[in-house]
Design a protein that fits this description.
Elements (H helix, E strand, L loop, with lengths): L1 E6 L5 E5 L4 H10 L6 E5 L5 H12 L3 E6 L2 E5 L10 H4 L7 H10 L1 E5 L12 H9 L3 E4 L3 E5 L7 E3 L5 H11 L5 E5 L5 H12 L3 E3 L5 E5 L8 E3 L4 H13 L3 E5 L7 H9 L3 E4 L3 E5 L9 E3 L10 H8 L5 E6 L9 H6 L3 E5 L2 E5 L8 E3 L3 H13 L3 E5 L2 H4 L5 H7 L3 E6 L17
Parallel strand pairs: 2-14, 3-13, 9-10, 17-18, 21-22
Antiparallel strand pairs: 1-22, 1-23, 3-5, 4-5, 6-8, 7-8, 10-12, 11-12, 14-16, 15-16, 18-20, 19-20
The structure holds ligand EPZ.
Length: 434
């Protein structure tokens, strides 16, 4: 087990290079299974979720070769299995992307119900609705999803809610269905567009990605290609908030500024200076931020995956801010940890009322999930004194070289191993003699 130890109060200054997008990489790695030869994927973030997805792809028979830590070659010609080991699917929610990919490649898939961050119910009814529209026979129980398809036939799919996962999954199946599939009320996140671009490089025929109507004409064959993953919108946003919160001056490189519009807009409302360039943004913080209200929405709205980080920043605002979480049922569990640092936050259903205070005070906290963990890191950077963060394996899922990147910007953060507590074995029972 490891923990982070952070000494707060250091202004972040300098330059940081953003890694490839986790949520694009997970979808694109699954999509590579559809190719009839080798794909070379570049700018892949070297993070735990990606390593698990790579392991899953190897388990179904693909041949995977790391060219370097951020470049992977996948030869899907050897894919032959359609069942994914439960141990892996429970550690990675996006493992369910292999349902769409294996339906597209082999016409069947058997996957355990997915795991993932726990912020409320995470149903998959829209995935199932999409697959069944394509003629797939789905049998599910509480533990397993069993999908079988003869020849999938393109169809119209209207999502009742905007869902990234179901949009990805139906795209992965529909690219090999016969005829046209129209996905309505589709997710528009940058990683949806990245997936569509990758699939089109492979020979798919997808139009409209990035809008709420995606049209897919099925093809018989998809070939391997070389493709570079887009920069991670959420990692970039996390560093933008860290720079602002520490009153720093940071040039955040290898980003797509357009993907950061909603985050930049909110930081500017807080009084932060943002300079946008072609592939980088400069963030110049100020002292305490001005208060601001946020409502998380599907893209292009303010991303839910940036909600904990912004809430942490607003704990030291001048005034009271309100954050409404419209995507997930229960994404404020990290507030308990913020209050251990002295924050004043009242959670009312799917809203948090944040009364700004002059400063946080370092204390031991834990990472409840990936983005809650990122929020604790930001809290530690701004709190007075020392903050220790446990359960940082959640953070390792989605941030590459976080300690190195923050240290290079002047942060005092280190990863410390915590030896497992020694628990004496039950003493051997000695037979009573006599
Ligand atoms: C993806 O999760 C991301 N994960 C999440 O990021 C992100 O929070 C989420 O999209 C929203 O942007 C990956 O891309 C791997 P959804 P996903 O399906 O696909 C409801 C991170 O920090 N819904 O868009 O699971 C659902 O309950 C992670 O990187 C249904 O009702 O999210 C939620 O309220 C955390 N039925 C809403 O839709 C369904 O069948 C959005 O979920 C599917 C979803």
């Amino acid at each position: 087990m490891d923990k982070f130890v952070i000494r707060g109060g250091k202004r972040l200054c300098g330059e940081v290079e953003i890694s490839g997008a986790k949520n694009a990489a997970l979808a694109i790695l699954a999509a590579a299974v559809l190719a009839d030869d080798v794909s070379r994927i570049e700018n892949v973030p070297n993070i735990r979720d990606v390593r698990i997805m790579v392991q899953i792809i190897k388990e179904i028979g693909a041949t995977v070769r790391y060219i370097n830590k951020n470049t992977i070659e996948i030869d899907a010609r050897t894919v032959q299995f359609t069942t994914i080991p439960d141990a892996l699917t429970k550690r990675l929610r996006a493992s369910y992307y292999l349902i769409g990919a294996m339906l597209g490649r082999l016409g069947k898939a058997r996957v355990a119900m997915p795991g993932g961050c726990n912020f409320g119910t995470r149903p998959i009814d829209q995935h199932i609705k999409g697959f069944e529209a394509l003629g797939v026979r789905i049998v599910t129980d509480s533990a397993v999803i069993d999908a079988k398809a003869g020849q999938m036939i393109g169809s119209e799919v209207y999502f009742d809610v905007v869902t990234v996962g179901a949009t990805v999954n139906v795209m992965l199946a529909a690219v090999k269905a016969r005829g046209q599939t129209i996905i309505e009320n589709a997710a528009k996140e940058p990683h949806i567009v990245d997936l569509a671009n990758f699939l089109n490089f492979m020979g798919a025929d997808i139009r409209g990605a990035g809008t709420d109507i995606i049209k897919i004409r099925g093809v018989d064959k998809l070939v391997g290609c070389t493709y570079s993953i887009i920069p991670d919108q959420i990692e970039a946003g996390t560093f933008m908030v860290a720079a602002a919160a520490t009153g720093g001056d940071v040039l955040i490189k290898n980003v797509t500024p357009k993907h950061l519009d909603s985050i930049s807009a909110k930081l500017i409302e807080c009084g932060v200076t943002i300079e946008e360039h072609d592939d980088c943004v400069r963030v110049i913080g100020r002292g305490r931020p001005m208060k601001c209200n946020i409502k998380t929405m599907p893209h292009p709205g303010f991303p839910t995956d940036m909600q904990p980080q912004m809430a942490t920043y607003l704990t030291i605002a001048e005034g009271t801010s309100i954050i409404s979480e419209s995507v997930w049922d229960n994404r404020f569990t990290y507030v308990d940890q913020l209050m251990r640092l002295g924050a004043s936050v009242q959670v009312e259903g799917k809203a948090a009322i944040i009364t700004g205070i002059p400063e946080l005070k370092g204390a031991p906290v834990r990472a409840d999930d990936l983005r809650a963990g990122a929020a604790m890191v930001i809290a530690g950077l701004i709190a007075r004194g020392e903050t220790e963060i446990e359960d940082i394996h959640h953070i390792d899922r989605g941030y590459e070289d976080l300690v190195e990147k923050l240290t290079a910007l002047g942060a005092s953060i280190e990863r410390v191993s915590i030896p497992d507590p020694v628990i004496d074995p039950i003493p051997a029972v000695t037979a009573n003699v006599g």
